[in-house]
Amino acid sequence: MTTSTRPWGQRTPADTKHDIELGDRFAPLLDGGLIPAIVTDRHTREILMFAWMNEEALERTLTSGYAHFWSRSRNKLWQKGEESGNRLAVRGIHTDCDQDVLEVEVEIEGDGVACHTGARSCFYREVEIDPTAPRPFALKRRNLAR
After folding, report:
1. How far is it, in rounded angstroms, from Cα 131 to Cα 126?
2. CA 64, 53, 105, 122 torsion: positive or negative?
3. Quick one: 28-141 is in which CATH superfamily?
């Protein structure tokens, strides 16, 4: 049996629901090797982006203080902002009750944008729901100030 090099706890079959939900041990569930990460602005609480983390991305995020993610489309690890300069400085990490989702609180460096399109948030479009319209589910760009 090999010992994990994780800087956090290894989840085991012996862990109870109580251990996971109410205990003080960080033991995130990387289902299929990945955990969802919701990235929010530390000051405004605005959702900036969503991405996946694998074990290495989570470890690098925890040890470097900058957000790292796993790209499923490119099949590689990446640090947000490594090319643009809009790095995400991690100021806090929260997990949900059963430790299978992370919220990563950040401050954006550089130009203050989190989206590769140049928008502050990747959630810059709203799905308009109007059952009477010819296109009842059209996208509308939200006006999000920087």
Report:
1. 15
2. positive
3. Phosphoribosyl-AMP cyclohydrolase (3.10.20.810)
Give tens-digit pLDDT for 80-94.
999 999 999 999 999
Quickly tell me which residue has 């479009």 as its tokens: 125
Q: What are the domain boundaries of the chain?
A: 28-141
Q: Can you tell me the distance from the alpha carbon of 98 to that of 145, in angstroms, rounded to the nearest whole number?
A: 34
pLDDT value, residue 5: 59
Q: Whole-model pTM above 0.70?
A: yes
DSSP codes, the chain: -PPP--SSPPP-TT--HHHHHHSS------BTTBEEEEEEETTT--EEEEEEE-HHHHHHHHHHSB-EEEETTTTEEEETTTTTS--EEEEEEEE-TTSS-EEEEEEE-TTS--STTS-SSS--EEE---TTSSSTT-EEE-----
